[in-house]
């Protein structure tokens, strides 16, 4: 889509007026060339006076922030995994203690059963006589 070139006859104005007219023409050109979203970005860039160096500094700062966040996340993850392993080991030790107690109690119960049977046999033998 071709647009006819517009010729504008500017009368001789003061220097300030010329700058205003040129700025207005630039804004019109941006409206015609740029889509709405990028126009907003261009307006922000002009208002903040953002230069390539500022963008590079911000980009470097963002990368550094990302790296620090990543390292902190890894450290926290490592701490959580270490804590879980510690809990698993503690649980295993407790289970071993409980198992050994159960085995000893089972032996005690079997000895008590034997003694009970012996007492019952003795009572039955003495009750028969």
UniProtKB/TrEMBL annotation:
InterPro entries: DUF4577. The keyword Amino-acid biosynthesis does not apply. It comes from the Eukaryota. Residues 36-56 are annotated as: Disordered. Keywords: Membrane, Transmembrane, Transmembrane helix. The chain crosses the membrane at residues 64-89. PANTHER family: LEUCINE-RICH SINGLE-PASS MEMBRANE PROTEIN 1 (PTHR36475:SF1). This is LSME1 protein.
């Amino acid at each position: 889509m071709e647009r006819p070139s517009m010729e504008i006859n500017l009368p001789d104005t003061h220097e300030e007026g010329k700058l205003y007219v040129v700025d207005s023409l630039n804004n019109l050109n941006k409206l015609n060339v740029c889509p709405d979203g990028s126009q907003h970005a261009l307006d922000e860039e002009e208002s903040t006076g953002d230069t390539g160096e500022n963008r590079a500094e911000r980009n470097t700062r963002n990368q550094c922030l990302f790296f620090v966040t990543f390292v902190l996340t890894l450290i926290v993850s490592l701490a959580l995994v270490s804590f879980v392993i510690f809990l698993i080991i503690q649980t295993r030790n407790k289970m071993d203690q409980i198992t050994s107690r159960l085995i000893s109690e089972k032996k005690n119960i079997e000895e008590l059963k034997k003694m009970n049977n012996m007492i019952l046999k003795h009572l039955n033998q003495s009750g028969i006589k």
